[in-house]
Amino acid sequence: MLVPTVTADAIAINSLYSITLFLAVVVFIIVQGLIIYAAVKFKRKHADEIPYQDHGNMKLELFWTVVPAFIVIMLFFLSANTLAQLSGTGTTASPINNVHKVGDENARRRIEEAKRTDVVIEVDGRQWFWQYKYIKEGVRHSSQDNGELIIPEGKTVRLDLQSRDVLHAWWVPSFGGNLYVNPGEMSYVWIDRPPKGYYIGQCNAYCGLQHAQMLSRVKVVSQVEYDTWVKLKKAEQGGVATENGDAQRGAQIYVDGGYKYADAIAKGDKNTGLQAQEIADLSAYINSLK
Ligand SMILES: [Cu+2]
Are 252 and 289 in contact, with CB atoms under 8 Å apart? Predict the structure, then answer.
């Protein structure tokens, strides 16, 4: 409601939210109205006045039991219906579970067959950034240093999410609901034909000290812009690798962490402007990649 809803998932969730909010406002007005009415109408007039004592009122008790129960039951069916519409659940004919244990090949196959998908991106949640691997395109990218997830407009994008350390959550409200990313599990989310634009999300599960920095920015661009970006990214990643002589490792170091300093530190550059501890941490990280 506060951000534009641009995919079918987000629109379905938003209308459920609007209905719930509307009902809540109606209940609020009735309850508050009655409280104010009772407080004013039955205000004590003398210090020794004792109010009229009433016990049991069948009509009233039935009213405040049946009406709320009806509202709750209605919300249950509306929510279940919305949930079934979301892309992560597949279709009624072939339902899928969009979360499974890492390595469960059968569950994985069902996901692959569930929906026509144009772009598949592996998303690794790490403390405290998202790392993107574009499977078909063969490029890597990261949310560090304001990096956005770049996707083409009007296409169906599937994100294969995995956590490499602690619990994270992927949430870009314009595209739909929140999805927890548990270590040891694969979680899938579809972004269905998004329009061009810039969308901001946030890791939505507290994942450590820099949790607040863990944004999920998504830039939806035209197909031409997307293709150009992929080409540039490929050239950039290939270029760095050749200079270092060791293509594989160079590309890995430069891109994998998404740290703009990784390359400099790997070359032994002392003037990175980083604290000693940060250099030690990054060096350890680079070594872990070897
Ligand atoms: Cu996180």
Answer: yes
CA of 282 to the centre of ligand 1 (A): 19
For 63, other C-beta atoms within 10 Å of its C-beta total 11
Ligand 1 centre from 163 Cα, in Å? 9
**Cα 215 to ligand 1 centre (Å):** 8
CA-to-CA distance for 182 and 96, rounded, in angstroms?
Answer: 18
Q: Is the pTM of this model over 0.90?
A: no
What is the distance between the alpha carbons of residues 162 and 173, in angstroms, rounded to a whole number?
19
Distance CA 198, CA 42 (A): 56
Contact assessment for residue 13 and residue 82, using Cβ atoms and an 8 Å cutoff: yes
- Checking 112-115 for CB contacts under 8 A at 24+ apart, the result is 114/90, 115/87, 115/90, 115/156, 115/158, 115/190
Contact (CB, 8 A) for 264 and 279: no
| DSSP symbol at 51 | P
Ligand 1 centroid vs 147 CA: distance in angstroms? 15
How many other C-beta atoms can be found within 10 angstroms of the C-beta atom of residue 88?
A: 20
pLDDT in tens, 112-146: 888 788 999 999 999 889 999 998 888 888 877 66
Q: Tokens 């219906």 identify what position?
A: 81
Helix boundaries (H) for the chain: 8-41, 58-85, 105-114, 223-244, 247-256, 262-266, 276-289
Local structure of 19: helix, strand or coil: helix
pLDDT for residue 281: 66
Helices vs strands, H then E, count in the chain = 7, 11
Distances (CA, A) of 246 to 4, 141, 188, 290: 45, 20, 34, 11
Q: What is the Å distance from ligand 1's center to 123 Cα?
A: 12
How remote is the CA of residue 277 from the centroid of ligand 1, in Å? 22
| CA–CA dist 180, 158 (Å, integer) | 16
201-227 tens-digit pLDDT: 999 999 989 898 888 999 999 988 888
